[in-house]
Specification:
Elements: H1 11-41, H2 51-75, H3 79-98, H4 107-136, H5 139-144
Length: 146
């Protein structure tokens, strides 16, 4: 018996699931970087950036980014251009501001924390900027995942 569960999906659903999907892979990349960076530098564990925080925050953030992308799809004729520009600007601002975070009185821990935070911000920002519009518009992704 051949079951065909294919049904028309809304733009909202597709944008939301694209956000989930990109968020899953961004989480894996951030976790891998976090572990590698802490191993290489010997940076102690942190209450601010740890496995739990990365998993929950990223997987809550990216569906919201998918919803924002849906808003751009509904509001603009060229949504990808506006979305990419906005998220490039936001990524730049957050990466720049992360350089001013004061985590500790120890200069080394402060410097290591800033580097960790900045790279995570860049991973997340560039993942949203590049992969949300690209995957949403990718025919194979739409057929295979969505």
């Amino acid at each position: 018996m051949d079951y065909n569960y294919d049904f028309p999906k809304s733009k909202f659903y597709e944008a939301l699931i694209t956000g989930f999907f990109v968020g899953f892979f961004a989480t894996v990349i951030c976790l891998t970087f976090n572990i590698a960076y802490r191993t290489i530098t010997g940076m102690p564990s942190s209450a601010f950036i740890n496995v739990s925080v990365l998993i929950f925050s990223i997987n809550l953030l990216f569906p919201v980014i998918g919803i924002i992308y849906y808003g751009f799809l509904s509001a603009f004729k060229k949504p990808d251009v506006f979305f990419i520009v906005l998220f490039l600007v936001l990524t730049g601002i957050f990466a720049w501001r992360s350089q001013f975070v004061h985590r500790s009185d120890d200069h080394l821990i402060n410097s290591e924390f800033r580097t960790l935070l900045t790279v995570i911000v860049l991973i997340l920002g560039l993942s949203a900027t590049i992969f949300v519009p690209w995957l949403y518009n990718n025919k194979k992704f739409r057929e295979g995942v969505l």
